[in-house]
Amino acid sequence: MATITPSQDSESFQIISSLRYEPALPELLRTQPTDAYPDPLRSPYYLLPYHQERLLKAAECFGWSKAATFLQQDVESFAEHLNSFIPDRTKPWRLRIVIDRDGTCTVEVNAALPIDPLSLLLPSEMNQTTPWLVTVDSQRTVPSPFTTHKTTSRDHYTAARLRAKITSPQDPAEVLIVNPHGQIMEGSITTAYFRRRKSASTQVKLNQEDAGPAWITPPLSSGGNAGTTRRYALARGFCSEQAITVAELIDGEECWLSNGVRGFFRGRILLDEPKP
């Protein structure tokens, strides 16, 4: 089976993070139990400190000292920088923060699709939206700093989406990225969560006393991205980390997906091509 190794010249990419500006979020945080929510400002910027820390770790990984210096400012100053890009603070926006090796930060702002703000906090069984169809990439991707950190070097993700016939970011579909060992790394634009199961490698015995969370997400050692909603889901105790292989997936099983723009939403695994 073919494998893909992400690579990019060090001069020609930027580090990025995408997040939601949601005007309803501050009021929601005041009315919900949010002990694990990381933003002391309770700002409209979803999981803002996690995004700032994620960008800082990427800058440090690539040795970008000027970018790291910019990202070491306090979160309130960082929020004020983002505020200058928001055209209307009464509407939700999708922000794409882009930082180059010299520490120049630009923010691309586009209208965000409306969502139930509750879906930003944790998955809810009350979420009755139509599940996204989740397929598995037919090729394997070799983990690298470009899969651990989010950058503009995303050809391997774009290619996976094209192989899965996903043509638009608005398509309710996702494709799972797989490493050469057959382990799920992540989704092309999301973190994925699966029903907890026995691990073939560790022979974990599940019972009511030691089962832990009902959901699992791949560990970073599988090669996927250190996503902000992934970090939040772990902090809230929604899921635990456990490696999962393509062979362990079940056609038709439900899963959850998340990212920094849409929050948490349902998915359904599709392993077999639908009949015409």
TrEMBL record:
InterPro entries, sorted: Aminotrans_IV (IPR001544), Aminotransferase-like (IPR036038), BCAT-like_C (IPR043132), BCAT-like_N (IPR043131)
SUPFAM superfamilies: D-aminoacid aminotransferase-like PLP-dependent enzymes
GO molecular function, one term: catalytic activity
Segments passing through the bilayer: none
Domain of life: Eukaryota
Record's protein name: Aminodeoxychorismate lyase
Protein source organism: Aspergillus viridinutans
